[in-house]
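Incident log, support desk, overnight shift.

02:14 A customer reports that sequence design results differ from what the structure should imply. Their input is reproduced verbatim below. On-call engineer (initials T.W.) acknowledged and began investigating.
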């Protein structure tokens, strides 16, 4: 999985329904590490109420739960919503269960025990579906948002124009928040076949800093630039 995949995951809200508390706690913890928010439900009825209240980006549900099963939950959701990705988790591989969900347009059917690779594969499929129906906007610190698909930077809903080089520069820093982006990387990624002069780089950074909060972009002399959290 590439860095953009993990950046996209950080924008997602997931509803996870599972009646076994131990399993639910462990999987929810794994999901929280990669995503924006995880909402837990102990059965299908609670999950349905949370689905209507929280409007999650993805629904992940076990099949066999008390009060309302995962299949019943998925069928109700699909009657009113054909686009939200749904992932089914079950201890069963019987044809009876598979036939019950074949028309629900699921992203994935995962058989327990669930591992991290299963979850990442399912989330990748979900992201593919989401990207076809709406753009994903990244929440930045201090009230800023950035839309990678449309290259739009906004502050409190107001659009801030960025040119092509500024957008690529900003995305590089956002994708590498934990480290310095070197001058060599900027040459390859931002300037590509053109020559990156010192004055051109300083001009780009100066103009972009005017569009962002103070100290958003910091420089390590002789090395490169990095993105600082507010």
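02:41 Re-run completed on a clean worker. Output:
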């Amino acid at each position: 999985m590439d860095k953009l995949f993990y950046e996209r995951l950080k924008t997602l809200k997931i509803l996870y329904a599972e009646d076994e508390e131990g399993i639910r706690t462990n999987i929810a913890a794994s999901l929280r590490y990669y995503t924006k928010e995880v909402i837990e439900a102990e059965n299908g009825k609670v999950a349905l109420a949370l689905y209507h209240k929280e409007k999650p980006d993805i629904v992940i549900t076990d099949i066999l739960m008390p009060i309302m099963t995962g299949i019943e939950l998925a069928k109700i959701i699909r009657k009113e919503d054909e686009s939200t990705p749904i992932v089914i988790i079950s201890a069963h591989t019987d044809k009876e269960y598979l036939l019950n969900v074949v028309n629900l347009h699921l992203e994935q059917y995962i058989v327990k025990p669930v591992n991290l690779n299963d979850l990442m594969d399912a989330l990748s499929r979900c992201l593919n579906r989401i990207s076809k129906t709406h753009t994903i906007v990244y929440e930045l610190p201090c009230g800023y948002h950035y839309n990678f698909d449309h290259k739009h930077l906004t502050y409190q809903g107001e659009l801030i124009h960025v040119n092509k080089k500024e957008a690529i520069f900003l995305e590089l820093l956002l994708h590498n928040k934990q480290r310095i982006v070197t001058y060599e990387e900027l040459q390859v990624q931002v300037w590509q076949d053109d020559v990156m002069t010192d004055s051109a780089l300083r001009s780009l950074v100066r103009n972009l800093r005017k569009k962002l909060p103070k100290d958003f972009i910091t420089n390590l002399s002789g090395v490169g630039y990095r993105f600082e959290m507010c």
